[in-house]
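Record minuted for completeness.

…
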Amino acid sequence: MRVIKYPVNTGKQKVIEGDIHKRGFHMPRKHERDRAVGMVQADMRHIDVANNVGVSKLTITGSMSRLRQTGFSNDRRRSGRPRETTLRQDRRIRFTHLRNRFLPATITARQSPGRLIQGYQPKQRHQPPESVNQLRAALVEEWNNIQQAFIQRLLGSMRRRLTAFIDARGGHTRY
């Protein structure tokens, strides 16, 4: 987006080219970032580069500081988790919520076709034991899951733990 200022510096600006809504604050793609880095290295001001690329000045400043720190202008690492909705579903959800701003997210999730929007299932909780026999079986199972090396390491450290406890006269120890 190019901006022409009035001859007298009144603070007013006139937009002559481009659409104000296209100016996003997203991180530009690799080729745009490399182009922006080249412009900054060619002694262009950050605000001019930002206007040329179509992002905010802070985006350019952040890209340059990351370039100075890491030596690369690559994207930051992401989790790699696949998206749960397609771009078409995202547009539909956005349009639905713009049409009815007070629509709860639960209704949107119910109306959404295909996969779950939230994308994860809650962890299954273990049921508490209902009888003494179930409690006994659960304790035996967990006891058998304890590794022998852990038990030996714990027993080996008991002398040191007790000595520290006696030296602290029953007070606070680091164990």
User: Anything to note?
Assistant: DSSP finds eight helices and two strands in the chain. The longest strand covers residues 13-17.
